Amino acid sequence: MEEKEKKEILSKIQSMEKELFFLKEKVLSFGESKATSSSVTLGLPKQTPVIEEKDTVSLEEGPNWFIQWIGQNLFVKLGVFSLILASVWFFYLAIEEYWINESVRIWIGIISSLPILWYGHKTKETRPYLSPSLLGLGIAVLFSAYYSGYVWYDLYGTETCFVGLILLSLTAVGLSYSEKSEVLFGFASLGVFLAPILVSTGQNSYPFLFTYLLIWNALFFWIRKEMPWKAVPLIILLANHLIFAAWADGNLNEAKVFFPLVFQIGVYLLFLIREFQILKNTIEENPILTLVSIGFTLGLGFLQAFWIFGIFYPTLKPFLLTLVLIVFYAIYQRSIEDNSLTTNKKKLYDIIGLFGLPLIISVIVMGLTGKTLAFSLISFAFVVTMAATYSKQLYMYLATFPVWFFALFYIFAFTYRSFNEIPFLNGRFFIFFTGSLYLLLSYFYSRKFSPFSKFFLYSAYPYFLLGNFVEIYLGFAPEKRLFLYSISLIFYGLITLVFGFQKQIQSLKVAGFVSLALVVAKFYLYDFWNLSLGYRILAGLFLGITLIVTGTFYNRIKKETT
Predict the structure, then answer these.
(1) What sections of the protein cross the membrane (predicted)?
(2) Residue 545's domain spans which residues?
(3) CA-based Rg of the chain, rounded to a whole angstrom?
(4) Tens-place pLDDT, residues 499-525
């Protein structure tokens, strides 16, 4: 409102200056000759155009915005914090010196909060940065004074103290809602979380604690949807998990699963649903803190679920943690469907989609071992690649590359020969074969989506050859290995070359040509000098036939194209 009035006043002043200039020129033209009037007119200052206020840049939007924020916002909060410290230290000194007795101390705290609250309310229009901090300070002083009467002087019982602290905190919540003040809501939230801790008698009444916190989180869910707050949601999320972790460290093993599990599920769902709703409204602005809140909600929820399921349902832990991730992606998918995605929005959701990727991998790793784990990792990388290509999510597509790398080479963790294992007819070679097939399918499915798809194509054939070499190395005697390496290169090189010529696929032609070139180089540089006479004859025979067939294909293609 003030900005609009400022623009109108500035526009009126400029129009009045313009009118005054023309009146002055007209008066001078009456009293002087035409020539003089002309010279005077020429000597007059140039008319200045009206400057539109919308083209000016305010201090908050200009390069000094950081200094402005420090001066108007941070300094105020530091000043209030300094006053709190000074008051606490003075109060402590007065108690140490016994300048004031017990009852007077309580009343001093209560009465001193009233002028702070009054002044904070009075300055809410003139000093918007100072007012919420003063209101929060006044409530904090009142809260501390009331609690002091319980903890130091036993003026009232535990139930009375708890009810009083809750009423004070809820009053602060109501004020923050009416004032739409994030700072004041932060003070209120602090009181809400501290109340059960301050009056705790050590009886481990966790059903009451978690019910109380869940009700408070539901209230925050209702308030948050109308407020563009950024930092408070993250602070409240961390406070929830900090309280749970402090309690669970010594009590979770002896407790029943219902209340801790319901509390964690409730916090997980409330925060995910709420932050995705807020993201929908702030996605075009600065959603960094909202993204951080979503990431922490998923990460901390997963860790707490891992803790709970590990104690109460250890055998079902991988399955239950998978359900936690499914819930996240269900809410994520629903949020995407509710949005009309632009390019920037899509990039943002692509980044969010990556949040669950390392957690899915951890679930796979903790639930499986050995060859089963290797096959699961390769299958997971393939499925995520297909899903990223289908949904056109480039960030998720690129994030699969390190997963592919780890999955493809995890098989080497158990490259040893087992008893009764048949070469090329075992689980290890099946993983090499499946991995090559997945790589090839990933290329054909995503080649129109991303130029990075060539990574899959250029990896499929070498990975399959590598699997053959591993089987030869583990399954045959040393004197046969060199010969079998050459036979593998000849066999697969000839197949890929023939198929590449028939289907006119240049990459397969290159792969086959490189394989045969390696065989030729290996035969003349190494096999010729190291193989026994019999294997040397066989290697030369196979190589000669293959090269003749290859030359025939090349000559036929040349005749067809000329």
Answers:
(1) 74-92, 104-120, 129-149, 155-176, 183-199, 205-224, 231-249, 255-276, 288-313, 319-336, 348-367, 397-416, 428-446, 455-476, 482-501, 537-557
(2) 535-561
(3) 38
(4) 776 767 676 667 766 776 666 666 655
